[in-house]
Structures are given as C-alpha cells and as structure tokens.
Amino acid sequence: MKLITRIKEMQHFISEEKRSGKKVGFVPTMGYLHEGHLSLMKRAKKESDVIVVSIFVNPLQFGPNEDFDRYPRDLERDKQLALEAGADVLFFPDTKEMYPDEPVVTVSVNKRVDALCGESRVGHFDGVATVLTKLFHIVSPDYAYFGLKDAQQVAVVQGLVDDFNFPVKVIGCETKRESDGLAMSSRNVYLTEIERKEASHLSQSLLKAKNWLLDGDSGETEQKMIKYLEEHTSGFVEYSKILSYPELLPPSKKSKKLIIAVAVKFSKARLIDNIIIDNILTRQESGEETCSVH
Amino acid sequence: MKLITRIKEMQHFISEEKRSGKKVGFVPTMGYLHEGHLSLMKRAKKESDVIVVSIFVNPLQFGPNEDFDRYPRDLERDKQLALEAGADVLFFPDTKEMYPDEPVVTVSVNKRVDALCGESRVGHFDGVATVLTKLFHIVSPDYAYFGLKDAQQVAVVQGLVDDFNFPVKVIGCETKRESDGLAMSSRNVYLTEIERKEASHLSQSLLKAKNWLLDGDSGETEQKMIKYLEEHTSGFVEYSKILSYPELLPPSKKSKKLIIAVAVKFSKARLIDNIIIDNILTRQESGEETCSVH
What we know:
Chains A, B: Keywords: ATP-binding, Cytoplasm, Ligase, Nucleotide-binding, Pantothenate biosynthesis. The structure is a homodimer of 294-residue chains. With 294 residues, chain A is of the alpha/beta class. The first copy, chain A, is 42% helix and 21% strand.
C-alpha cells in the first residue's frame, strides 16, 4: 500500500494509473476506521482497479462548538486496517496541505440541508462539499463510496456530483451495524457503558417507526419515536424525522423513497441513524382519497 | 469542427480524446465572438491538441437588473469565426441542459470580490465560478484561456483552480484593443457613435495613471483618473482603483503586481478596462520611509 501525504504526488500517481486505463475507487474518510469503512473498501475492491482511501479530519465541516479537536485519531491502526481491506493508496494530507490559506472559494449547499443534521450543524455540509470537491480533483475517482449511515451526506454528495457534472459515480452503501443493531460510527467510543446499551434503541426506533407509519401519518410517527427514545435512553432526542429522500422535504404521495432518521445526544456523543424505505405513504394516502369520495 | 450541445456527449468525446494522450485547450465564452476571443483560440491552438470553445450566456452571473436578456447573441456568425480560428469543438448547451433544476450546490467566492466589479455586481463571481466548475468537469481541459480584460475574473478563476485543486492551468491573455486603444468587448456594440469615440479615454486614463503613480500615491492617482474620465467622457465613473493583483487588496510594499482598473457606465453599456503592472509603489514608499527618518 502506497502512503501519500502531498496533493501533487497523489494527482501524479493517479494520472499515471488512469493513463493505463485503470478505474479508480475512492473511499474518503476521517479515519479511526471501523467495519463500516472497511466494507466500503471491500465493495470498492470488487468494482475498481485502484482503491484510494483518504484520511482527513476536515476542520471546515466542524462547527466552533463541535468535536474537531477530540475527534478520535489512530493513524497507525488505520494504516494496518486499510492495508488488510485491500487499499492500494492511503492519502493522508495535513491541514496545511489541504488549506494553505484562507480559501478564496468554497462550495455552498443550498438545498437538502434545512432538515436533519443540517439544521443544527450550520455550515457542516458546505465543509463536506468543499473538501470533497478538492478530494475528487486530487484522486479523480470513477467511483466514490459513502456509508448510508450519513444518508444526508450521501444526498448532498449526489447533488454535488449532479450539479457540478463531476464524472464520478456516487455509491451509497448500507449501514454496518453491531450485533444489537447499533450503527457503527467512530464516535461510538465516546459512549459510557450504560449509554452503549441504550444506543441500540436508535435502530429499534427506526424499525418501529416503519410499522407505525403503516397505521398513522408521519407526524404521529415522529412523536411516537421521540416518546420511545425518551423512555428507552438517557439521551436528548435532537430530531426524529420522516422525509422524502434524497430531497429531504416533507413527504408527499409523489416521493419515491422516504427516510426515517433520528439524532440523539448522549453525554459525550451525538449519534445518528436512519433507514431508507419505499414510500409506504402512497398506499395510505390513496386510501384516504378513496374515503373522501363519498 | 464538431458541434455539441449535450453534456454527456461532450464528456464522452473528451474522454476518448484524452485516452489517446491528447492535451485539451479550452476557451469558455458567452459568444458574440470578437478578436479578443479569437486570439485566445489561436493561443490555445499553439499549446493544445484539441481546442474546445464553449458558448453559454450564463444566467447565474447576471444580476436581476443586468443585461442577460439583451446580451448580444449570434450563433451562426460565432460558428464561422470559431471554425476559422481553429476550434475543434464548439460546445453550446442551452440553459435547461446546464441548469435542469434549481441547484443544490453553488460555488461561493469569499475573497477577491469586495472591490472593482464584485462590489456592484453582487453574486456575479459566484455565478462565474459555478459555471466554470461545471464546464471544467464537462470539458476536462489541461489549459483554460481567459482574457485579462476581465482581470478580476482571472484572479477569481485562479483562486478557484488553486483552492479546489483543479488539474487545469489557467492562462490569462493580454487584452486585445481597437486601433484607438479601446479594449475589445461584446458590449461595445451598445455604444452610441459619440460614446464610442469617448471610450478610448478608458485606456488613456490607465496609461496616464501609471505615470501619475510615479509621482503621487495611489489615492491621489485614483482621483486624477476620475477627473480625467469625467472631463473626457459623458459616462459615469463607477470606479477607478489601484489594488494589489491578484489579491485585489489595498496595495502595499509587499504587493508584487498592481492592477489599475476602471469601470465607466455609458447610456447602454458598462465598460471596464485595466492594466497590470509591476509594483512601482515599492520604490516610492521606500522613498517615503527615508524621508520619515529625520
């Protein structure tokens, strides 16, 4: 596995690989790799000739009161894990290499950010879109892999690629979970022992919501989810939402997919989880229409 | 010369050309081509294997009270001129092709836009940077050519390419001028006969300013330029400025280059012009320091 820290070296290496017709698969990460990241690398390995993994804790996507400084880091362990998962290149630039000066230009995300994490993490997705724009130009991927645990991120990245005509295919991959259903996340290490047990109720609340949605409307279901999470965890429920996906707007009959998403703040970790399902409101709302005929 | 209107076709054509090792030179324009544009194409012809010219009047870079609707257009004439200048591909998408929906993401320009045209044309450079981000992904140029008549645009594009790590070399080319010194521009057709004669004083004011700058400071020189333009034209002097280039900040001893720039509003045309020179304030300001010793 090649280790690269400089942008120019990364660009040069990739342009040589692409000249010989190779397809590049890219897994951008903030490091502290877990099974979720490794599953993206393994997926990339099946579809691409050269697998590039980046590790960069991007200051632009952290708010002033967020956990940039204490975000967990372990480069030596990450190197070993990426190597074992089949990465061909590990790109880990430092902050000065990525942002030598206060930037002249940044990307602004104007849609898909007024709900869920975008509502409380103002500017977060601008930072994500900006760093990915840079990374896509540095790594020139044919395929880029993202975990659907961060479904809003995948929606924003799809918008970025579509609107800016990036010649990149975005591949959202299913969330990897612990045996009790907890979505894997680098931030899970912040949980206390008790919180770790409670945290399985996030995924439980999503599965229950899917059933509640068959009998009630989305507003009712959101309220039931809050109640469930408040009863089963000590955390603060930041949101429990049902929206269209990937638009992240209030769902309507026309929405093809729905996302059911939650965010819960524990003492030192803010956890998120979601499931994306076919629009089951279609049936229900058509039912309502039939009723309203008489 | 190949005529292309669809993004996917353009991307496909270029990826085939690049696969065979060809270098791509790109001249993005808003059409209504003049000698200035043609000189960019001729320059590109010397350095690249495939010359792509785009024509797209980009709505995103026009303000609500600007001249988007009446911006001059003549596609048939442009086709002929581009062909004669040696273009290999003319890419002219329509607005729906470039912006099928309200965009999720746009580029925000945070520096180099508080002065000159950026001050009055709010959002203009965001629109320029957004459309160029798209066009760079559609055309994949190795070299992109811009006229230095729009020097602020070149400064912003250089910031865009540097900050976003685009694998593109930006080449700013000298302003082409009519025999009386008027900088060539698609908007010159808007001038009345009298205004057309007066308009040569824009370039005259720049040359005079360079001399005034040797004897006075930049503030004094700016005032003299306004006076000169007010005396010699019927237009409204929107700005006359001396700034560091490409930063577009108040000049200091450390500035390597200076830009002397003017914008004058005539009845139906707003004209701009500039010259970029080595920092002659260095000498002068060191002189001042010597004086202040006693």
